[in-house]
Amino acid sequence: MQELKDTIDKSRLPRHIAVIMDGNGRWAKEKGQDRLYGHFHGVESVRDIVEGSAEIGLEYLTLYAFSTENWDRPENEVTGLMELLVDTIRKEVPTLNKNNIKLHVIGDMSMMPAYAHKELAEALEETSKNTGLNLIMALSYSSRWEMIRAVKQVAIDVKAGKVQPEEVDGPLFQRYLATSAFPDPELMIRTSGEFRISNFLLYQLAYAELYFTDTCWPDFRKKNLYEAILDFQKRERRFGKTSEQLQQPAGTI
Ligand code: IPE
Ligand code: IPE
Ligand code: MG
Questions:
Q1: Which residues touch 133 (CB under 8 Å, ≥6 apart)?
Q2: What is the pLDDT of residue 106?
Q3: pLDDT class for 1, splitting at 50, 70, 90?
Q4: Which of 19, 68, 202, 230 has CA atoms 20 to 30 A from the CA of 196?
Q5: Would you call 157 a catalytic residue per the annotation?
Q6: 22 lines ligand 2 (CB under 6 A)
Q7: First-last CA distance in the chain
Q8: Which residues are involved in binding Mg(2+) (predicted)?
Q9: Could you confirm whether 9 is annotated as catalytic?
């Protein structure tokens, strides 16, 4: 484990890793348990991955914990999962502070229950001065929700004369996204053998490297995270250019 961590090139770490934590339900079912049992164990993976990310000096980690579409799941699962998420975030604040981790939340908070607003606001406030890893929890989040909200806000600002239509470009649009304070993810991991993006950071993942693993989220540990990072470091990121261009010093082609 120590060895695997040491083989990571710290000078070429992705700045931002985003994770679709999937497979809790199937993991539980395989054990003859109900879905909430899987979510409960998924929390242990969250702890381990957050700790593992902080240990290697990662700057940004986004965890997709609950999608806008997940509100349509059976009521007992929604209620149980929401309580588990909010309670966990609240209880982990001392550990986050100890590890200098700053919490952020992205998502449609208008759909969240009142108690969640209060608990999350307190957790955000209590970790706001930390300067290490930025932990971004995507809760009640979906990319289409985020983009539609952004377009609406741009339209409102254009109408109010605060923005000219000619000024609307990539950097301006980015400022209207829920992720405006964060760089785009460079590596996106999805667990449980599904090859989908499922409405997650559609705009921001444009040039992310995608990594899929069959491991279900409750079994995903630091070791698996480090394997994904090592895989990322073997890849050539071209951003639309040719491989030859990337070999040349900047400005020569
Ligand atoms: C991921 O596990 C957690 C959430 C989506 C909230 P799932 O609950 O989607 O588990 P599977 O994919 O049904 O196994
Ligand atoms: C994506 O997983 C959302 C989260 C992990 C929070 P889902 O299990 O909801 O996605 P689909 O339904 O398989 O696309
Ligand atoms: Mg799933």
A1: 50, 53, 54, 58, 59, 60, 61, 99, 100, 101, 102
A2: 98
A3: low
A4: 230
A5: no
A6: yes
A7: 42
A8: 22, 209
A9: no
